Amino acid sequence: MSNVTVITHPLVQHKLTLMRKKDASTNSFRRLLGELSTLMAYEVTRDMPLQDVQIETPLETMTGKMIDGKKLVLVSILRAGNGFLDGMLNVVPGARVGHIGLYRDPATLQPVEYYFKMPSEMDERDIIVVDPMLATGNSAAACVDRLKKLNPRSIKFVCLLAAPEGIATLQKAHPDVPIFTAAIDRELNDHGYILPGLGDAGDRIFGTK
């Protein structure tokens, strides 16, 4: 699977295993997700472009490195994507945040948009889309479709778990969008859930059913 990065750092894998456990509480699941998303953010932002800047230290003038271009935008696919945001913002606190609301029609498994709110001047920004699960891939592909109309400089997609079906869908629609995940699971079941997976990420983050 080209353009897919599986983040195999031991801490990422350890925390993911704890999250998969069915008896993990809402509190621990949410905390682990925040910790894991912080760790993943380091890998996802590894190749961000830098520019030279002149600064004054307490002792002298020097040339330092800073991220080049407009501020990064983190785009959360509601509602489960919000569980990723705090951890990512720990690494890039200056990032802007956008939201897109998509729900999956239970009959067709196709995404239906109900909310879209982005920062101003999205053109030439770098975007990181966050959603814990890349299952069918339909919501991810629809989200990227929408974002590309805003002419960003780049788009990356980050998830906890990915199914082969979801990767194939997103790559077919947007082969230029890199995918970062902590694991590629076996398959989807008849209801579009990832197996072995970790259940419904949104319900487990927010303690709902």
UniProtKB/TrEMBL annotation:
Reaction catalysis annotation: UMP + diphosphate = 5-phospho-alpha-D-ribose 1-diphosphate + uracil
UniProtKB keywords: Allosteric enzyme, Glycosyltransferase, GTP-binding, Magnesium, Nucleotide-binding, Transferase
Protein name from the UniProt record: Uracil phosphoribosyltransferase
Cofactor-binding details, from the entry: Binds 1 Mg(2+) ion per subunit. The magnesium is bound as Mg-PRPP.
The encoding gene: upp
Swiss-Prot/TrEMBL cofactor(s): Mg(2+)
Taxonomy, superkingdom: Bacteria
Binding positions (5-phospho-alpha-D-ribose 1-diphosphate): 79, 104, 131-139, 200
Family membership: Belongs to the UPRTase family.
